Each structure stands twice: as structure tokens, then as C-alpha cells.
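Hello,

Our lab assistant flagged a job as stuck in the queue for most of the afternoon. It eventually completed. Since we weren't sure the result was trustworthy after the delay, we are filing this so someone can double-check. Below is the sequence as submitted and the structure that was eventually returned. Let us know if re-running is recommended.
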Amino acid sequence: MIATRTSAALLALVGLAACTTFDPLSQPPAPTSVATTTAKSSGEELIAYLARIRTLGESALAAEAARQKREASDLARVKAALALSLTAQADESDILALVDAPARKENVDADVRAMASFVQALAAERRRLKEGAAVRLRDERRAHEAQKQRAETLQQKLDALTELEKSLTDRQVPSR
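-- returned structure --
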């Protein structure tokens, strides 16, 4: 569970890092005022949020997701999806429903859209893995039942052979 959370956080960091490009030929950015340098970009805010919630327990994550769902912004929807993606019992369809709109919209902040797309891919992969595990479990149960039936059939045959052997030894051998 901790490995899942750690890998999700690492993948989120890599996904956001891949969203920026390096253009060495462009002009250096114009100096910014102190007020704009203290404001976090949405990408930084999402990374800080993920770092903060990755240590929370299941119930705290569910409460955080519910709190974020009450807000109407795309950033809050992605945050709610991130919180849900860290819980083991979350339904992937809930996660996908939260990030579908921000991932498809063109006018959403690039970092929010990138994280929404990442969480969408993560939830789809998680769903695929759960479905695969369910199929394997069903197949293993069927195989177990077939082996159980075979063992019962063999036991019946063994019991019949034991009875036959017993009836043969109980017979008196006629003398010639």
C-alpha cells in the first residue's frame, strides 16, 4: 500500500516534470514583482498537495477527497481524484469521473490538465489490473473446484477398491 502511494507520487512528479520544455534560444523572462514570485503555480500546488496527503490514512484521504469535491474548480477536482487514487478501496469510475472534464478541456491550466491526464491513465491502469486479478481469481477458484471434484471422485474409487479388496479377503479360499 505504501509502495503504491510512493509510486503514484513519483509518477505524478515525473508526469509534471515532463510537461515543461526547455527553450535555450528564448529571451530570459521579464523580472516579476514580489507578489507574483510568492504565488505557487498550479503544478507546484499539486505537487505540494500530493506530498501532504500521501501520508494520510484511508479515512483521512476519503474526508479530504470529499472536501475537495465540494469545490467547483478543476484544480479541486484533480486534487479530489489524487486523494481518491491513494486509497485502496476507491472506485476507479469515481476517479475517472473527476478527472475526465479537466483532462478534456482546452482552456484548463496546462499543469492541471497534465495531472488530470496522468491520474486518468493511472485509474484506467488500476481498473485494468483489478479486472485482470478478478479474472485470475475466478479461474483459480474454478480450477480449485475441479481439483476438489477430482479428489472426491478418486476417493470414491479408492473406497470402492478398498471394499472390493476387503470382500475378497473375507471370502474363504476353497481347498482343492
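-- support follow-up --
The delay was a queue issue, not a problem with the job. The result is valid. Residues 110-170 form the longest helix (61 residues). The two ends are 79 Å apart (CA to CA).
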